[in-house]
C-alpha cells in the first residue's frame, strides 16, 4: 500500500505545478496581447521619422550628419535586448547564440566590441561569457517607456560621436507570430536613408526653423531611440509569446504525466486489494 | 466648406491624435506657429507647450507636448511628440546612470555568488526538512 500512497502525493504535487504553469500561460497570453498593441502603436512614429529623414537627406545632399556617413570599422557597439525573466523557452538562448556568432565574426576581423545590455538576462549572460559592457538597463517591466532607454542609447551615441565605435547594432527578437520569433541583428548606425530614392520624382524642401542641421541632428537622435524602443517592445511581445508556448507545453506534459501516474496508482491499488483478498481466503482455508 | 488639413500627433509610445483640422497651433522653437491648410513644407523642433487643434466646426482640442518635432506638408501636419522631458543635462544624467549600472554589474562579483550560495543552502535545507518529515511519518 506504501507504493500507492507515494504515487498519490506525487500526483498531487504535479497537479499543483500544472496549476501554476497554466496560470502563467494565461497571464502570458493576455500580456502578449497588450505588448502587441504597444508594438503596433509605436510603429507610426518610427515610420514618420524615417520618412522625414528620407526627405531631409535627399533635400540636403551637401550636409551629412556623421550618423549617415560610413567610416572604417575598428570597433562596433552592440545593444542586446533580452527579457528580464526566464521561463520563456529558448528565446534568450537563441538570441545569445545569434549575438555570439556575429560577435565571433567581428572578432575574426579584429574588430573590437562594446556591449550595451537591456534586460537582466543579457546582462548576466554577457557578464559570464566576458563582454565589455559599457551600459546597462534592466527591470523595465512589461510596459517600458522611452525614458528608460534614453540613457543607454545616449551612451552608445556619445561613443559613436567621439569615434570610439564606428557602427552600432541592435540585437533583439522580431515578433513574427505567436509560434515564431526570430533573433535579428539590425544596423542602427550609420543610417542608410534609402527611403529617399522614391521621392526623387518631386524636388522640394522644407522651411527649416532654426536651421536644417540642428533639426536633422535632433531628428536622427530620436530616430535611433525610437528604433531601440521598437526593438524592446517587440522583444517583450516575443517573450510573452514564447512563455505562453513554453507554459502550454509544460501544462500538457504535466497532464500526460498525471495520466501515467494515475494508471500506475490504480494498478498498485488493485494489486493491494487482490493480495489482501488472497490472504483472507488463504487464512480461512487454513482454519 | 472650409479647408482642412490632416493632423497626426504621434509619440514613440502611442498614437495621440489623428484627424482633420482647420488650423493647428504649435509651440515651435523660434515662436508659436499657426498652421493653415496648404502651408508650405516646414520643419522645426518644438518647445514644451500646448498643441491646439481647431477641428472643423470650431471645437478646439489641446494636447500638451514636452517637446518634439513639427513636420508640415501642404495637406498633412505631423507632430512627433516626445514622451519624456528632454534636456541636455537630463540626458547626460541618464547616460551616466546607465554607465554606472554597467560598472556596478561588472564589479559586483558578490551578488551572483551570494545568490548561488543561498540557493544551494536553501536546497540543502529543503532536503533536510523532507527527510525529517519522512522519518516522522514512518514512526
CATH class of the largest domain in chain B: Mainly Beta
Q: In this structure, how is the largest beta sheet of chain A organized?
A: 5 strands, mixed
- Tell me the radius of gyration of chain A: 28 Å
Class by SSE composition of chain B: alpha+beta
* Major sheet characteristics of chain B: 5 strands, mixed
Mean of residue pLDDT of chain A? 87
Number of strands of chain B: 9
Task: Report the helical percentage of chain B.
Answer: 25-40%
Put simply, the count of helices of chain A is 5
Euclidean distance between termini CA atoms of chain A = 26 Å
What is the percent of helical residues of chain A? Answer: 55-70%
CATH fold descriptor of the largest domain in chain B: ATP Synthase, domain 1
For this structure, the quaternary state is heterodimer
Characterization of the model:
The complex is a heterodimer of chains A (287) and B (139). Chain A is elongated, with a radius of gyration of 28 Å. Chain A has a 5-stranded mixed β-sheet, with helices on both faces. Chain A is an alpha/beta fold. The longest helix of chain A is centred in the C-terminal third of the chain and has 75 residues, at 212-286. Chain A has helices at 2-59, 91-108, 120-129, 146-161, 212-286, and strands at residues 75-81, 112-118, 133-137, 167-175, 181-189, 207-208. Chain B is α+β, with helices and mostly antiparallel strands. Chain B folds into 2 domains: 5-87, F0F1 ATP synthase delta/epsilon subunit, N-terminal (ATP Synthase, domain 1, Sandwich), CATH 2.60.15.10; 91-138, Single alpha-helices involved in coiled-coils or other helix-helix interfaces. Chain B is 36% helix and 39% strand. Chain B has helices spanning 88-107, 109-138, and strands spanning 5-11, 15-21, 23-28, 31-35, 42-46, 49-54, 60-65, 68-73, 76-81. In chain B, strand 6 (49-54) and strand 7 form a beta hairpin. The longest helix of chain B is centred in the C-terminal third of the chain and has 30 residues, at 109-138. The model of chain B has no long low-confidence stretch (mean pLDDT 82).
